[in-house]
Amino acid sequence: MVIEDLIPIRVAEKNPIDMLPIAFLYSTMAIFLAAWIFPSNAAIVAVFLATLACMPLMLSLIGFEKEKEEMHRDYLKRVVYSLFGGAKSHGASEPAEQLLPFFIWLFLGLAVAFTFWFAVLPKDFAANLFYVQLNTIKEINLGFSGNSAAIGLFFSKILLNNIKVLAFAVLFSIIYGAGAIFILVWNASVIGVAIGDTMRNALSAYAPAIGFVSIAGYSTAIGSSLMRYMLHGIPEILAYFIGALAGGMISIAVVRHEWNSEKFEATTYNALGLVIMAILILVIAAMLEVTVSPLILVK
To answer: Which run of H or E residues covers position 239?
Structure first.
């Protein structure tokens, strides 16, 4: 296999922005191969193919993180530091690996690909190609539409749903090693199609306008759409990635028969800490989704 060797994991963690074009390539290949070989089921097959492309990288990442977890007693603190994308950890002579920015750029690359191709492909072709994602978006909008006075109820529903997805991410990683990447790619495809649909609608709405009005209206719609979905979408996906990492580390420890050892206890402790961190991030994401995101109007 070639694509997993495009960027070594140690390089990817030190230069996480490199994952943006790599992930874009993964998704683009998946979309066109699915449309060519399985046109009637391309919506799901594209997600599976993108998952297969990301799987070796995720396995390498989880293995690399397991090595660091065994080497450093302050592993959880190092993960928190990595939120700041290059903060030095405990007097290290060089920047720590940027684990969480790596996840963000990977997700953005996947989502941008689905956004771009949904927006530029012919309308009917794109609608048929991504019909599953479009139906999912409609169901989400129906499920969470209603009176703004019920903000507490919406918050509970969203948070419980996100925690359920996090539980699946952890479980899939424990069972399949890096199996949670399917959930993450699927979420990237749904968010990407949602943004792409908004961009297409904006293009139609402002196409009759002249010059600056058209450009300004189109730019505003795109920016508003990105803000509305990414404001809470990035923290959510980040939490799922962290959960996937926790489950993957447990999976490696089990495969190595480390149970009933100090190593397994340390791994369990760190995995639990990662899950708690993920839940806290999901709480913040849910608060943003019910309070701030609805205020961003997409026209």
So the answer is: helix 211-255
pLDDT in tens, 151-165: 667 788 888 989 999
Distances in whole angstroms, Cα of residue 229 to Cα of each of 129, 183, 223, 224: 21, 17, 10, 9
What Å distances lie between residue 192 and 115, 189, 196, 263, CA to CA? 4, 5, 6, 40
pLDDT, tens digit, 9 for 90 and up, residues 65-120: 788 777 877 777 777 776 655 544 444 434 445 667 788 888 899 999 999 999 88
Eight-class DSSP state of 146? S
Could you tell me where the DSSP H helices lie in 121-150? 123-129, 131-143
Average pLDDT, the chain: 79
Cβ proximity of 270 and 75 under 8 Å: yes
Region 28-37 average pLDDT: 93
* pLDDT for res 89: 46
Nearest CA among 206, 191, 193 for reference residue 118? 193
| Residue 59 banded pLDDT, cuts 50, 70, 90 | confident
Name the domain count of the chain. 1
Which of 116, 112, 89, 85 is CA-nearest to residue 13? Answer: 85
DSSP code of residue 27? H
CA–CA separation, 269 and 277 (whole Å): 12
Mutual angle of helices 75-82 and 99-120, in 10-degree steps: 40
Alpha-carbon span 208 to 221, nearest angstrom: 15
* pTM of the full structure: 0.81
d(CA 137, CA 131): 10
Percentage of the chain with pLDDT > 90? 19
Grouping H, G, I as helix, E, B as strand and the rest as coil, residue 31 is: helix
| Residue 261 structural domain | 3-295
Which stretches of the chain are assigned E, i.e. beta strand?
Answer: none
